[in-house]
Amino acid sequence: MRVIAGQYRGRVLKNPQGLQTRPTSDRLRETLFNVLAPRLNGARFLDLCAGTGAVGIEALSRGAAFVTFVDRVHKMCGLVEENLDLLGVPEELTEVVKSDAAEYLRRTGRNEGQEWRAGTEPWDVAYFDPPYSSDYLSVLKEFGAHTAALLREGGVLVVEHHHKNPLPETLGRLRRWRVLKQGDSALSFYEAA
User: Fold this and answer.
1) Of 42, 136, 187, 192, which one is least surrounded by beta carbons within 10 A?
2) What gap in Å lies between CA 101 and CA 150, rounded to an integer?
3) Residue 21 domain-assigned?
4) Any domain includes 11
């Protein structure tokens, strides 16, 4: 797995050994970032169910200002940190959090209406890529319930899912505006209405 474009273009990332993961393919990442390109410069980016961190690292490479990586597996969080160190990414540009995705969003969503502290501001782009067999709805409900606390005005949520796994058209104030299919995978793009 490699970084496709930007500052870290062509750099190879470490992959997990013996863990059952499904990293986002280079081709699907390229499609994703072709759509997100106008939103990335200076953006705060959330890589939820980060795995190797390839998507968040690609966002950094293409101009994101800060990336939060969240994964519930300790070894995957360690792998994200190894990949960041391998590339020499400054620590102040990233945060790696070991947490269940829905619980992390629930805790962060509770900050809604309160003064933001460093690292807890809403994101410009959130990317959610769980195992395809996961319960997507618990996480999607958190985005719907806490949109203002999780996404900035004009922010976007992108969900990677199996193309046969239907996702809702609306999540609270979020409306799906685009679906891109590639092989067995699909990307659903949501934006605040």
Assistant:
1) 42
2) 13
3) no
4) no
Confirm whether 17 is domain-assigned.
Answer: no
pLDDT of the residue at 115:
44
Burial class (CB in 10 A: 0-12, 13-18, 19+), 163: middle
Q: Residue 136: which of 95, 111, 164 has the closest Cα?
A: 164
Q: Which two tokens stand for residue 123?
A: 């994101």
Cα separation, 7 vs 10, whole angstroms: 9
The residue to which tokens 């934006």 are assigned: 191
Q: Which domain holds residue 75?
A: 26-192
- For residue 61, being part of any structural domain is answered with yes
**Other Cβ atoms closer than 10 A to 190:** 29
How many domains, in total, are found in the chain? 1
Please report, for the domain that includes residue 84, its CATH number.
3.40.50.150
Helix (H, G, I), strand (E, B) or coil at 118: coil
Query: Block means of pLDDT (10 residues each) for the chain, length 193 residues?
Result: 92 77 77 95 96 95 97 95 97 96 90 50 94 86 91 94 92 94 94 82
